[in-house]
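Render Lipolytic protein G-D-S-L family in 3D.
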Amino acid sequence: MSRRVFLITLFLICCASVALAAEPASKADHKLRVVLVGDSTVAEKSGWGTAFIKLLAPDVECINAARGGQSSKSFLDGGNWKKALDLKPDWVLIQFGHNDQPGKGPNRETDPETTYRANLIRYVDEARAIGAKPVLVTSLVRRTFQPDKQHLRVDLEPYVAAMKKVAEEKHVPLVDLHARSKELVEKLGPEGVKPMEPEGKTPGSLDGTHLNERGGEMIAPLVADEIAQGRTGARHASREITGHVPPSFHPAMKLLRSCFALALTLALAATTSMAAPIPAKDRTVILITIDGFPAWLWHDPALPVPTLRKLAAEKARKRRACRW
C-alpha cells in the first residue's frame, strides 16, 4: 500500500511540475510593454512611476512617458500622446488632473464635465484603436492639511469623479489612487508625510504635491496593489502587469497545489498513525486548506500543534472525512 501511494504521489507532483514549467514558455515570445502617461506626479524624479516600474514582473517592460507640467489637454496638443502610442504598448496607465485645474493657463486648463471628459475618452478610444488596453488612474492627492491636522483639503474631486464616470461608461479598469493616497496621507499625518516630501519653492517649505524617491516608493505600491487585487475592474490587468498576482490565480500553481493536497491526503490515509497509534477503522483524515494550500492535517487549525496531536490521538472520529 505504501509503495502504491508513493508512486501515485510522485506521478501527481511530476504532472503538476511539468504544467508549471510549461506555463512561462507560452509567454516567452512576447514581452509585455506598459507605458505610463501623465504629469509630474507620475514622471521620473518627481512621481511614482520610477518606483512602480521596480514592482513589475520580470517579463514586463515599462516605459515612463509622463512629463512634468502636462495636463490632459497639453499632453495631446504637444504630441506626447502620439509618442506614447508609437511605443506600441500593450497597456497604458493614464493619470491627469493636477494641471487641468483652473489657474493653470488656457493651454492646460480643462473643465471636468466637458473638455477633461472628452480628453479621457479620446485617450481610451485611441489606445484601443492600436490594440492597447487603457487603465485610468485618478489623481494623486495633494498633501495639504486642514487646520485640524487630520484631514486633507481636497481640490481634485471634480476631476476624480469625471474619470470614474468615463471608466464606468467605457468599461475601462480604474485605479483609484486619489482615494488610496488620501487614506495613506491622512493616516500618516503632517509629520509622517515629511519623508516623502521634496523641498518646496521656498527654503524650509515642503512641496505637498510631487514626490521624492522615498515618496515614490510609498505611493507606487498603492497603484500596484489596486491592479493586483483587481479592484474596480482592474483584475484582468493584474495577471499581466504586476508581480503581485495572488499565486492562486496561476492555473499551473492551482494544479500543483491540488495534486500536493491529494498526495498528502493519500499518504495520511495510508499510514497507521498520526501522533499516536490509531486503529485503521478509527482513522480520521481532515484536510484543511487556505487558498487551496494545505494548512493543517488536523481537525482544528486554531489549536496549537501539541494539542492537535493529542486530540487527534485521543478523539479520532470513527469515519473518514476530507474537506477541501
